[in-house]
Amino acid sequence: MSAALAPKSRTFMNTGLPLFSDLPHKVASLDADLVRFGHKEVELALHEMPGLVALQEEYAGQKPLAGARIMGSLHMTIQTAVLIDTLIALGAEVQWVSCNIFSTQDHAAAHTADNGVRVFAWKGETLEEYWWCTLQALTMWKDGGAPNLILDDGGDATMLVHIGRELELAGELPDPTKAGSEEEAVVLQCLLDVRETRGNEFWTQFAPNLRGVSEETTTGVHRLQQRADAGTLLFPAINVNDSVTKSKFDNVYGCRHSLVDAIMRATDFLISGKRTLVCGFGDVGKGSVQSLRGQQAKVSVTEIDPICALQASMQGLDVITIEDALPTFDMYVTATGNKGIITAKHMVGMKHNAIVCNIGHFDNEIDMAGLEEMRGLGEVEKIDIKPQVAEWRFKNTTHGPGGRGHSVIILAEGRLVNLGCATGHPSLVMSASFTNQVLAQIELHQNADSYENKVTVLPKVLDEKVAHLHLQKFGAKLTVLSEEQASYIDVDVAGPYKPTNYRY
Fold first, then answer.
1. Helix, strand, coil percentages in the chain from 3-state DSSP, rounded to 5
2. Quick check: is 98 catalytic?
3. b/e per residue, 27-41, with b = 16+ CB within 10 A?
4. What integer pLDDT is reported at residue 1 of this predicted model?
5. What are phi and psi of 334, to 5 degrees?
6. pLDDT of 8 higher than 80
7. Which of 255, 279, 308, 421 is catalytic?
8. Residue-wise pLDDT tens digits, 488-502
């Protein structure tokens, strides 16, 4: 790891790292070749990210983010490196972590660290290292201050502040022994260590510095909305995920590109003709189905929502349950944003060498905890094939080769397969998402005081602006309404052209 020496202090769990560190960065390496690779990839990505380039040009010399101190928790990829560079070009001070233990591209982190940004991210972090990284980027600023904005993906950074403060106000010590999962135990241990070293008011004093958060993904937005409904959200939140130019570009078109890319990089198995189940037919599920159908897989879906199920049926897809699929299906993809979608019990009943992966969110759509419990009982064996690809061999089943135990192939340990086993969404897709993020950060920095502590989306006019910034890349030419036509449908000639509730 590339890191400067830091003063000795209490170390965090098994990381050997100081709980609070003044490290300028912590990345896999700052080897000259890796740094050069990162700089070149960013240069290439810029050509494919016209939205971010356009914002840099539009605000050249204006510094609309001057005074913004942005803590970012979002996959540390080449595309994210361009986002970070854009935020800095617009005047922000930035500190960064990846929001996933497997999603960092080490050359992207090297590029960012080489540019002087405090980034804490490397591919293959442990859970303990992940939460240590989050704590560093959130709390340890160069001048001893604090961030005033969060750019979040999944809500982990936002959650840490809220839970820490709530436990302090309740006079309750974080108790890792009461955690419901391995990761929750790490979070509570982190908060306990902070309490024991920094006292009972650390988060209570920290939280008021934060003026807002922009959130990238479905699960994070859900978390924020729950807090807003309960009246416990501490600052305004902009829901970037539901901007049309994010939800369609990232969730549909991005998954359409990156799902099969990940599966093929991970396994080299033929996808064509294979029976494949996509769990969930929301935007991510729709993109995943398109991805698999493009390889001529035989695709079915599961759904809880009758409208999504009807959409799937109208596209010629069978809507079934996971139990229907178990005896004969070759591949399973979770895309729901929920938990416990594929259980250990389900995997016991799958055919030999079925591939199981997740492109939804978080690490609990696939029941890895259940598999680990079975491993502890000696009922299943984990065989690492290569990084982020593992065979789980069941010892007590009889439908494997020769009547012995069968196996399933699990990708990225149930975490995001497109980032764990491939490079995520392509640059042009992420340009649309990240243009929304920059606009959201500008809006919060300049106008947070005019917002309530609720969850809002960017106005339609900005959503259309993001689309405009990318049309030239495709050589598209828009038709222009006449004044009479605009009046007839009650819109301005310059837009917006659809009502807020229009479903694209």
1. 45, 15, 40
2. yes
3. bbbbeeebbebbeeb
4. 54
5. -90, 135
6. no
7. 255
8. 999 999 999 999 888
pLDDT of 343-370, one tens digit each? Answer: 999 999 999 999 999 999 778 999 999 9
Closest CA to 92 of 441, 440, 436: 441
* 288-337 per-position pLDDT tens digit: 999 999 999 999 999 999 999 999 999 999 999 999 999 999 999 999 98
Range 427-452 average pLDDT:
97
Beta bridge partner(s), residue 299: 276
Q: What is the pLDDT of residues 195-245, one digit of tens each?
A: 999 999 999 999 999 999 999 998 899 999 999 999 999 999 999 999 999
Tokens of 293: 């159908």
Type of residue numbered 437: Q
For 445, the token pair is 């920095």
The secondary structure of 391-427 as a DSSP string is EEEESS-S-SGGGS--EEEEEGGGSBHHHHSS--S-H
Helix axes 50-58, 78-89, angle to 10 degrees: 10
| Three-class secondary structure of residue 26 per DSSP | strand
Spell out the residues 6+ positions from residue 41 whose beta carbon is closer than 8 angstroms to its own. Answer: 78, 107, 108, 111
Which of 247, 288, 437, 441 is catalytic? The answer is 437
- Give catalytic status of residue 357 as yes or no: no
420 is written with which tokens?
């764990």
Provide the total of helices (H) and of strands (E) in the chain, helices listed first: 20, 16
Instruction: Give catalytic status of residue 492 as yes or no.
Output: no
Task: Pick the catalytic residue from 148, 251, 388, 407.
Answer: 251
What is the pTM for the complete model shown?
0.93
Contact predicate 128/15, CB 8 Å: yes
From the candidates 246, 257, 286, 445, give the one annotated as an active-site residue: 246
Sheet with 212-215, edge to edge strand ranges: 26-27, 118-121, 93-97, 69-73, 149-152, 212-215, 237-239, 455-456
Q: Is position 209 annotated as part of the catalytic site?
A: no
Q: Is residue 4 very low, low, confident or very high in pLDDT (cuts 50, 70, 90)?
A: very low
Residue 250 catalytic? Answer: yes
Query: What is the predicted pLDDT for the residue at 408?
Result: 98
Write a three-state SS string for 60-97: CCCCCCCCCEEEEECCCCHHHHHHHHHHHHCCCEEEEE
Q: Which residues pair with 416 in a beta bridge?
A: 358
Query: Is 103 tagged catalytic?
Result: yes
Catalytic status, residue 345: no
